[in-house]
Amino acid sequence: MAKLKLQVNGESHELEGSETALLLDALREGLGMTGTKRGCETSHCGACTVLLDGMAVHSCVVLAARCEGKEIATVEGLAQDGELNELQRLFLKHGALQCGYCTPGMLMAATALLRRNPKPTLEEIKVGLDGNLCRCTGYTGIFEAIQACAVGAK
Amino acid sequence: MEIKLFRPHSLEEALSQRAQYGKDALPLAGGQSLLVMLRNKFIDPQVLLDLEPLGELRGLQARANGVSIGAMTTFFDLLYSSDVQNAAPILAQAAAKVGSTAIRNLGTIGGNLCHNEPGADLPPALLALNASVELRSRKGTRKVPLTEFFRGYFETAVEAEEILSRVEIPTLPKGARGAYIKHAITPEDLAIAGVAVVLVPDGKNPVSASELRIGLGGVAPVPLRALKAEAALNGTALTDEAIGAVAEIAASEAEPMSDPHASAEYRRKMIKVLMRRALAAAIEGGERNGHGKA
Amino acid sequence: MKFQGNLLIARPVEKVWEFLWDIEKLAGCIPGCEGVKTIKDREKYELKVKDSVGPITVHLDLLADIKKLEPLKSIEIAMEGKDFKAGGVRQTMALALTPKENETEIGFEADVNVFGRLGTLGYPFVKKKAESVIKEFGEKIKDAIEADR
Fold it and tell me: Which residue of B53, B110, B158, C122 pairs with C118 in a disulfide if CB–CB is 3.0 to 4.6 A?
């Protein structure tokens, strides 16, 4: 058992867990933040994607202990004061989700991509999201939403 | 029994812990492979040795005689490093094809080599680059050429008290060109077959090559150099017939396995296809890392 | 994965048959076997097997069902993992005994299926292990039976 201090979406949290707990489990079970989803548990599907110091990572293969002192961003931190952010609104507008299970991961991967590359080409979007699988939408709506977000970038 | 996480403050401390626990202490690099196994209960160590705090395992330096890469260098760092793109471009190509963005953000060259899963992308490229690795223990340092490093599925030359610290790539011969071609169903998959080629073309027509090196991945229990194929092509004109004949030899040097992704026969066939493409790409100047902006 | 092979044991068929049903002795020939429990004699058994390759260690709790039994002639066994959460192994094995004067030829055929996580993540591990386990098993049985005068 170990004590852990995690900084998530700008807020500090303290929790107890196993020394080798994974970030996904710390977020969902430790902190009750279930926006990040548990999918394949083998680092392929990306449903568990969060940002670690701005980098997209698959939280199912990150040790929670390694995240101390780093900034974790999850899907819960995108909306501000109950208002969806631009990327989220564009996802809705472009039909970028159906069952919604991959959506938190897609949003976080897209957020990381747009921060590093505010005007990505379609090819760059595909590479940026190559670790996020969607079984419903066929990806088109997702790419359109991200492209629309890029075009509207300030 | 709960697994302990040790976070050594120095490489020396980590080596002491390796010496003390041996096989029961697994070094943890990027965690992108090992933590999948941990989560799915395929590994059962007493201790995970966290290498992240160790600055001695980082750093990428271009030197007069080649490039020295710290074991904890991530795939992301490799593919965007101008030193790697200049001195060992096929390594950048291979790094760009590993897994996904998220995996490339955290996974490391040291972890990739030590894990040695069939179908990994860096090993064939590093074999074609004549790379060697530095293994550290409390007893000292030893250097192992990569051709002697891979011993079997998930088994390498790293002893129970050792930690892989650096990967060394000697300077390429003047005029050398290369390419790494990977065949997989989706970008996240390990290679069904991966072929890396380094050669020095002589500028004739049809061109022939000296210094030909071929690395194969995913088609045998370990990544290997196709030595017979190299010998057959070295110095001869690279006509379609010659390449086709040599691709056959390379396919026969492999010992592919049938698994849920592909049959052995399919893998052998893919070696031939990829060999032709890799040689053509290398002769034409090789591809860029294909990723555009960071 | 299919495996087959032959084993020639320098003992008469009765001795071989007797050995095969001495569960303690037989378990001792299975590489990585940590214990066998008889649930119902000549019908159901439970085995614990542990094997490793590199850093990977896999623990399997297997249930063996004797499907067919022809005394001194043949055995058909179906084995599968008790717990399928992380995936597991399911296999069938057929052994045929043919007396050759004072010796016995054991012909075996095995069909091993890997599924779940073990199938997707651990396939090369299982394949390599299955081959070496079957080979070692055969060698150990032969040595054990022949050592017994």
Answer: C122
- What class, spelled out in words, does domain A86-151 have in CATH? mainly alpha
Total of domains in chain C: 1
Report the SS3 class of residue B178.
strand
Can you name the residues that pair with B169 across neighbouring β-strands? B67
Give the three-class secondary structure for C142. Answer: helix
What's B33's domain CATH number?
3.30.43.10
Residue intervals of chain A classified under CATH 3.10.20.30 are: 2-77
Domain tally, chain B: 3
C120 touching A (Cβ < 8 Å): yes
Residue C91 sits in a domain of what CATH number? 3.30.530.20
Whole-number pLDDT of residue C84:
53
Q: What ipTM was estimated for this complex?
A: 0.95
Q: Is the pLDDT of residue B292 over 50?
A: no
Give the dihedral of Cα atoms B185, B102, B110, B127; nearest 10 deg: 30
Mind listing the pLDDT tens digit for each residue in B264-280? 999 999 999 999 999 98
Give CA–CA dist C30/C120, Å, rounded: 25
Q: What pTM did the predictor assign?
A: 0.89
pLDDT at B286: 47
Q: Is the pLDDT of residue A9 over 80?
A: yes
